[in-house]
């Protein structure tokens, strides 16, 4: 049997084309796109303004490879740490960090990491794969729900400071941020998003060339190059 395609890998235009090719109206693609991103629906059955026949057609052709919060730990100060299970069974972590004025989502961009920073627990894991844009997006959506539930306010900030090196998954990270900041997604301001990197110079230059609107943080850990190389050995290749 031919494997079903993850529907969230399609653009809105591709969704519209799918419905037209199957004898339906193009606007149906708009409705499904809204369910997938703005309403963060994880099942076709929940798309209640679409007929059962259409939902069955979607079920026959596609899957929604969503994440699950496998385990949640809450501390006394309101911080929430999530063990997030991906559709293939692999795990990453995300964290909600509250203060009096904001709630911040710390999210992962890779399963494991290819860098070898001595102080980082993720460095002990080999890099298994990059996260897809929807898997990054889902972490933010899940933490936004936790922020509403436990802190009675929407998520205010996002930091890419979880597992993985975001600039080693550049294209998917950018696609996820496009969705997160889109009015058809979560509608967050790019000024409230910070990408933290261990330092990949050519990708930092590419960010500048792409004129991104979000913030950049660079983890130096030492301004002395020899010391930095001791604790972050990849610095020999990216000084």
Structure description:
- The longest helix is centred in the middle third of the chain and has 19 residues, at 133-151.
- This protein has 239 residues and is an alpha/beta fold.
- Helix content is 32%, strand content 19%.
- α1 packs across α2 and α4 packs across α5.
- It has helices at 12-21, 27-36, 52-61, 133-151, 170-181, 201-209, 225-231; strands at 5-6, 62-63, 68-74, 80-85, 91-98, 103-106, 110-111, 129-130, 157-160, 193-197, 215-218.
- The radius of gyration is 19 Å and the shape is globular.
- It has 2 domains: 5-63, DNA polymerase, domain 1, CATH 1.10.150; 68-236, Aldolase class I (TIM Barrel), CATH 3.20.20.70.
Spell out the CATH superfamily of the largest domain: Aldolase class I
Instruction: Give the number of helices.
Output: 7
- End-to-end separation in angstroms reads 49 Å
Strand order in the sheet with the most strands: 3-4-5-6-9-10-11
For the residues shown, what is the average pLDDT? Answer: 94
Radius of gyration: 19 Å
CATH architecture of the largest domain: Alpha-Beta Barrel
CATH topology of the largest domain: TIM Barrel
- The CATH class name of the largest domain reads Alpha Beta
Strand content range: 15-25%
Share of residues in helices:
25-40%
Largest sheet: 7 strands, mixed
How many domains, in number, for the residues? 2
List segments where confidence is low: pLDDT < 50 over at least 5 consecutive residues.
none
């Amino acid at each position: 049997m031919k494997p079903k395609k993850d529907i969230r890998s399609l653009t809105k235009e591709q969704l519209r084309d799918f419905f037209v090719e199957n004898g339906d109206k193009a606007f149906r693609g708009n409705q499904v796109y809204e369910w997938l991103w703005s309403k963060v629906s994880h099942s076709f059955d929940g798309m209640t303004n679409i007929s059962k026949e259409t939902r069955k057609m979607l079920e026959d052709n596609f899957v929604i490879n969503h994440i699950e919060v496998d385990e949640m730990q809450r501390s006394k100060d309101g911080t929430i740490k999530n063990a997030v299970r991906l559709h293939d069974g692999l795990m990453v972590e995300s964290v909600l960090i509250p203060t009096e004025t904001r709630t911040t989502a710390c999210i992962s961009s890779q399963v494991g990491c290819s860098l070898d920073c001595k102080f980082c627990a993720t460095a002990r894991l080999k890099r298994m794969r990059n996260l897809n844009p929807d898997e990054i997006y889902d972490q933010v959506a899940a933490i936004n729900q936790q922020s509403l539930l436990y802190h009675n306010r929407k998520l205010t900030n996002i930091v890419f400071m979880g597992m993985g090196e975001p600039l080693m998954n550049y294209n998917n990270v950018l696609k996820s941020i496009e969705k997160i900041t889109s009015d058809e997604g979560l509608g967050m301001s790019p000024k409230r998003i910070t990408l933290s990197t261990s330092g990949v110079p050519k990708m930092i230059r590419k960010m500048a060339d792409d004129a991104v609107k979000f913030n950049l943080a660079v983890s130096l850990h030492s301004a002395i190059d020899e010391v930095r190389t001791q604790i972050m050995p990849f610095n020999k290749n990216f000084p």
